[in-house]
Amino acid sequence: MTRKRVAILISGRGSNMAALIAAAAERDYPAEVVAVISDRAGAPGLDIAARAGVQTRTVIRSEYPTRAAHEGAITNVLEDAQAEIVCLAGFLRTLSPDFVVRWQGRMLNIHPSLLPMLPGLDTHARALDAGLRIHGCTVHFVTAQVDAGPIVAQAAVPVFPEDGEEALAARVLKAEHRLYPAALALLADGKVAMDGGRTVYGSFPVKGGPASELILSPDPVSTVSDIESLARFTP
Ligand code: GRF
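That is the input. Now the predicted structure with 5-O-phosphono-beta-D-ribofuranosylamine docked in place:
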């Protein structure tokens, strides 16, 4: 099996990055992590990656005169590492259309909401404000418009009445750590692609077969309550 070479772009904590590195440590996973790039010095994720034996680089925006020069430096690292897929994992910088086009169909992002609901920041607080009963996360192809690229996979979690932002964020993050490796595996395996601005999936002949990887309904819904009892929480 040839494993796809994946680079991960981070800005901070790196817990999704860690989940991808852990998944890629499995022998039958279709991708390997060849580089982690941070745009912030001292991002905690850098240490985690280095401890896992992954090559790390810090490419700081303020050290380059223009956005294009900064992205050029990132591109050089990606090329040196012979990356074939880029995963954004808590990367807090908007990438230029040029960069995005270069990686079109080969760059994924994870966002902590069920897109197209709640693009942007503070998704958990906004989910609580809106009184959502179902929240979650999305892995999507990256396009020039932020948080708007074609959806690859989503995971749903319940919002319980007693939830605060922290509890909800933790529940979503747990789902993110399952969803991102599953979505990356689909792309690395060639089971999903971006075509004509949309996501196209390989054929899944058996109901409940690999297609179930596309929608994750993590433990709280299935073990604590079903959708019907969850709906009863709705004011
Ligand atoms: C995650 O919630 C991810 O969905 C969002 O930024 C956060 C990054 O967290 N894009 P981490 O750095 O992966 O821990």
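The chain has eight helices and ten strands.
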